[in-house]
UniProtKB/TrEMBL annotation:
One of its GO terms (biological process) is glycoside metabolic process. It comes from the Bacteria. It comes from Streptomonospora nanhaiensis. Keywords: Zinc. GO terms for molecular function: hydrolase activity, acting on carbon-nitrogen (but not peptide) bonds, in linear amides. Pfam families: PIG-L. InterPro entries: GlcNAc_PI_deacetylase-related (IPR003737), LmbE-like_dom_sf (IPR024078). This is LmbE family N-acetylglucosaminyl deacetylase.
Amino acid sequence: MFDWSQQRLLVIAPHPDDETLGCGGLMHKAKAAGAQVYVQFLTVGDTADVSDKGFSTASERVAEVKAVADYFRWDDWHIAYPGDEFHLRLDALPRFELANTIEHASPLSIAAVKPTVVLAPHRTSYNQDHQAAAEAVLTALRPSDAGRRHHPGLVLAYEEAADQWRDQAVCAPNALVELTGADVDAKLAGMRLYGSQVHDHPHTRSELTLRSLAVLRGMQGGVAFAEGYHAMRWLT
């Protein structure tokens, strides 16, 4: 069994809420075991939502992040590219710049945090920011001399319910992390703190969708609940 208590996790999230949707259960599980958890957001800006006014400002979304960070007890978090200039436009940034930020330019870069586990979005997402982030993480974690650059032993791509919306087949997750009922409840509670982003069912960010996906992945592993991941590197 993997010992989460000894790990230092770095979660790369294109936008606030992606980290909770993709690995909220694992973050809760790891912190409860004694791990360190750091979250590197890439961008946030004014966002259309289901509120009465129809959008949330960047400052309102940052306030949500603060509440979620306190709830999950993150060790630290940071937003690399705040503002509408970058929000939903990460694909316009040169790959070199985005990868460089993730690799060593950010205060929560791979070089600064030296994580043992990196969690990032999967490249099959339809969202252009997720695709750009996933490709940049692959570049930042490219194989090289581990004596010269930090090499996390475990690199996982997390999934979100809408990632399957593609014009080509998407492989099922090849790594499952077992969750307790408390881990799933914590994931849902964390998502509720993103009040501007959570939706009623049917929606990819509804509580029923998130719980159902946890049940499905759990069934595939022979347990009650799980989160699915694609293992990009697993060095034992």
